[in-house]
Design goal:
Layout (H helix, E strand, L loop, with lengths): L4 H11 L3 E5 L3 H14 L3 E6 H7 L1 H14 L5 E8 L2 H10 L3 E4 L6 H16 L4 E6 L11 H7 L3 H11 L3 E4 L18 H11 L3 E3 L7 H9 L12 H9 L2 E6 L1 H17 L6 H23 L6
Parallel strand pairs: 1-2, 1-8, 2-3, 3-4, 4-5, 5-6, 7-8
The structure holds glyceraldehyde-3-phosphate (G3H), 1,3-dihydroxyacetonephosphate (13P) and zinc ion.
1,3-dihydroxyacetonephosphate binds next to strand 3 and strand 8.
Length: 307
């Protein structure tokens, strides 16, 4: 059943577990996410970036999710706009039927981020829709980073407290050292869990981890076996994801793992059968690989068997 984002995250915050927010750009990815949620008995966020919306068409994206939600009425699903870049973009998503939106004004100064977020909150709440915002910049932290450099990049807990109070935002993504994509850490993985805990203590609201792909060894190996090259890739280890959930993370954004797992299978078939041109033969193993990754993630985050 399609529900507002706050509903899923209020339960996760209370129960201290993380809910995967999985990106989709087409029907195959969406189908894999729903199949996994059904198998693992987990609530889900399905999220589309502005790029994904442009690719699918906003009406098609919303219709696909509404139809899938009807097919699986027992699964709580939120349809979320990932990294909305403007008030207008969030408004379009809300009007089209999204049940959760992110306004990402984190590249602006604190005051501007706060003002834009407050405007989006007012607009979205009028329709019951939940809002996510981001504080700090998403980038890895090196071992030798100085305290002042770290403070300049990562979330400031005191600012987070003020931001939440003044915007009335529903969930917040604090930058604690993750980044998007397949190459998150140069050396050993490192996240600022102390900072995360402080943000939680000062805000109490559901928190969001962006750049949360783990790139498990079997996923990297599958891609490498297919002839792909992501040798130096490094994701967020499962133990870090679990520590992040303990520290107050409730929404866990995951895209890169899904892309890699899916495309590895497409590459394998393309390599192994140069006479094949039936799209279904390429996409079916892609969806299956993606479903396996998601079911495992739901178990790691603790959202499995919650419905
Ligand atoms: O956070 C970014 C997501 O992985 C979506 O990426 O803008 O390429 O669709 P995209
Ligand atoms: P990954 O690139 O780690 O999958 O992060 C996705 C994300 O944060 C989407 O908002
Ligand atoms: Zn993100």
């Amino acid at each position: 059943m399609l529900v507002f984002g706050q509903e899923i995250l209020a339960a996760a915050n209370k129960g201290c577990y993380g809910v995967g927010a999985f990106n989709f750009v087409n029907f195959e990815m969406l189908q894999a996410i729903f199949t996994a949620a059904n198998e693992a008995k987990s609530p889900i966020f399905v999220q589309a970036s502005e790029g994904a919306i442009k690719y699918m068409g906003i009406d098609i994206a919303v219709n696909m999710v509404q139809t899938m939600s009807k097919r699986y009425p027992h699964i709580p699903v939120a349809l979320h706009l990932d990294h909305g870049t403007s008030f207008e973009s969030c408004k379009k998503a809300v009007e089209a039927g999204f049940t959760s939106v992110m306004i990402d004004a984190s590249h602006h100064c604190f005051t501007q981020n706060l003002e834009t977020t407050a405007q989006v909150v007012e607009m979205a709440h009028a329709r019951g829709v939940g809002v996510e915002a981001e504080l700090g910049r998403l980038m890895g932290i090196e071992d030798n980073i100085s305290v002042s450099e770290k403070d300049a990049v990562l979330v400031n807990p005191k600012e987070a407290q003020q931001f939440v109070k003044e915007t009335n935002v529903d969930y917040l993504a604090p930058a604690i050292g993750t980044s998007h994509g397949a190459f998150k850490f140069k050396g050993e993985p490192k996240l600022d869990f102390e900072r995360l805990k402080l943000v939680k203590e000062l805000t109490h609201i559901p928190l969001v981890l962006h750049g949360a792909s783990a790139i498990p060894d079997y996923v990297r190996e599958s891609f490498t076996q297919s002839g792909g090259d992501i040798g130096a890739s490094k994701g967020v280890p499962f133990s870090f994801l679990q520590e992040a959930v303990k520290g107050g993370i409730n929404k866990v954004n995951t895209d890169t793992d899904l892309r890699i797992a899916f495309i590895a299978e497409v590459r394998k078939l393309a390599n192994n059968d140069n006479t094949q041109f039936d799209l279904r033969k390429f996409f079916t193993p892609g969806m299956q690989a993606m479903t396996k990754v998601i079911v495992e993630r739901m178990q790691v985050l603790g959202s499995a068997n919650r419905i």
